[in-house]
Amino acid sequence: SAADKGGWSSFMLKEITEEPDAVGDTLRERIHEGDVVVPELEELGDDFLRDIDRITIVAAGTASYAGQVSTYAIESWARVPVDVQLAHEFRYRDPIITPTTLVVSISQSGETMDTLMAVKHARELGARTISICNTQGATIPRESDAAIYTHAGPEVAVASTKAFVAQITALYLLGLHLARVKDTLPAGERRAMVAELQAVPAKIGFALGVHDRITQLAHWMADTRSVLFLGRHVGYPIALEGALKLKELAYIHAEGFAAGELKHGPIALIEPGVPVFVIVPSPRHSEEMHRKVISNIQEIRARGARVIAVAEQADAAVLPFADEVIPLPLAGKFFEPLIAVVPLQIFAMELAAAKGLDVDQPRNLAKSVTVE
Ligand code: G6P
């Protein structure tokens, strides 16, 4: 059955390995002749989709970081403001909902009580709701106006991995579908984005190939007490996700920061030997952002931090400044996070394994939190 580990040492390893298929299967049936058509969205009617002037995403945990990643692309493609609210905060902040607000929930299980209550609250306030969910027939999609299912297959390990990349994929399909209906992105650019999406599975496959190198790194770092993660733009939520994975699995203090925030506080945490993962955006997308992140690396390196850069393989500028470079294939600027998250997931899993911990069932956590 799908809930069988097969020959794998853990469900988590099996599920990380399934990430190319999680993306590929989520794209299937939603791309026609090089353009995005999500049948599930057509149920909401093009008039409504055209009029949407605000998107609020509600989610918890890893799903909320998938939401944060997607805000950059959806705003850029569909020209609609998108904000992400933690589901358990949403209800108590008197949210602004109008007839042209779309509320998008993201939940792997479709049973997270905090997220379900946020969706119900949104509906009471008159919002139209879409559920992005990995579990057919779960409560949240049933309580929503429409559902875009992710096709990652059953996820058994408590820490979410393949569902995360499938969620970003579904959100990007939503963004491109809206861009088509609203006519906010020229057809040629939409097609280029579709081609980028279709190239993601093979690029994740490449990232899976750096596993041994990351295992070695994790073994060296088995006694580490604290790890920091820095990222900018779409790399920022990936820094947050990398830190969450490490907390969940290896019980190590970990924090993710926006790289630009470094000098506004976090740099005070840098002391000799502290490992810092830096997600480096490719210079081919923005030389300016790249330069700023390289200068962050220099600042923390000068204070003795141990820098592990997650960077595009052809990015030679990073080599002199980082202690370790994890090379990734070039991907479009919005697509980098789908690739860059993979080594961070592997790192958390291997560090937990190096400490002799159960990577599928971390202490105190539940796969699906069905209480508020
Ligand atoms: C729990 C899990 C997390 C997950 C979160 C949201 O806290 O331990 O891994 O990200 O719930 O779950 P959902 O099923 O709503 O995506």
Automatic annotation (TrEMBL):
The active site is at 367 (for fru-6p isomerization activity). Transmembrane segments: none annotated. Its EC number is 2.6.1.16. Keywords: Aminotransferase, Cytoplasm, Glutamine amidotransferase, Repeat, Transferase. Residues 44-184, 217-362 form the SIS domain. One of its GO terms (molecular function) is glutamine-fructose-6-phosphate transaminase (isomerizing) activity. Its main location: cytoplasm. It is found in: Cytoplasm. It catalyses: D-fructose 6-phosphate + L-glutamine = D-glucosamine 6-phosphate + L-glutamate. It is an enzyme of class 2 (transferase). Catalyzes the first step in hexosamine metabolism, converting fructose-6P into glucosamine-6P using glutamine as a nitrogen source. Homodimer. This is Glutamine--fructose-6-phosphate aminotransferase [isomerizing]. The gene is glmS. The chain holds residues 245 to 616 of 616 of the full protein.
